[in-house]
Specification:
- α2 packs across α6.
- This protein has about 200 residues and is α/β, with parallel strands linked by helices.
- It is about 35% helix and about 15% strand.
- The chain contains 6 helices and 6 strands.
- The protein has a 6-stranded mixed sheet with strand order 1-3-2-4-6-5, sandwiched between helices.
- The protein is globular, with a radius of gyration of 15 Å.
Length: about 200
């Protein structure tokens, strides 16, 4: 993927490696996405950075008080998260932005390790059905309701999984996900985390 550069980024060096999570190591809320975007995280080296999904996500995190700024354009842009951590179920940009179950399972140990490191974690926000499946496998949901925006489920260890539609262009351009819907999710995440 790092060899196929968009014309607007032709002069930039792409990260082109697995993209780690990013955020506050004392986070009580962890946001789990699908995978790095080909010309977003795959280019910048930071998850949700430099793409339109990230524009929506970080603006919502800023409005909810989890981010110091509403934008994320480069890994050195000064963005800091407080009380939140962001990662992806799959660590590399998948072909056609469609990760496979095999890719999810290959990347699962990395997500598992990051979740273990987040000792204060209380809430996992799953962005989309694929992320929800990955999170559900890792935390052992006691009851696993069908994915839907705003759906909540409790894990065996007392953490809460909160679902949201992914802030992809497909969802935001069609109105399936609005700013107020995403804001509601992060307001609820903050409540559940005890912030």
């Amino acid at each position: 993927m790092a060899h196929e550069r968009r014309a607007a980024f032709a002069e930039q060096e792409y990260w082109g490696r697995p993209v780690p999570g990013f955020g506050d190591p004392a986070a009580r809320v962890c946001i789990v996405g699908l995978a790095p975007a080909a010309h977003g995280g795959n280019r910048t080296g930071r998850v949700f950075t430099g793409d339109r999904s990230g524009d929506w996500l970080f603006a919502a995190l800023h409005r909810a008080g989890f981010a110091n700024q509403p934008t994320s354009v480069a890994s050195d842009d000064g963005l800091r998260l407080e009380g939140a951590y962001v990662l992806a179920a799959v660590r590399c940009a998948p072909p056609a932005n469609r990760p496979t179950i095999e890719e999810r399972d290959t990347c699962a140990p990395y997500m598992r390790r990051e979740l273990e490191i987040l000792q204060d974690l209380r809430v996992l926000v799953a962005l989309g059905g694929f992320a929800y499946q990955a999170v559900a496998r890792e935390v052992g949901l006691r009851h696993r309701p069908a994915f839907g925006h705003g759906v909540e489920a409790d894990s065996a260890d007392g953490r809460v999984v909160l679902c949201s539609y992914h802030p992809s262009q497909q969802n935001t351009f069609t109105g399936r996900l609005t700013e107020s819907m995403l804001d509601d999710v992060f307001t609820r995440a903050r409540e559940l985390a005890g912030h």
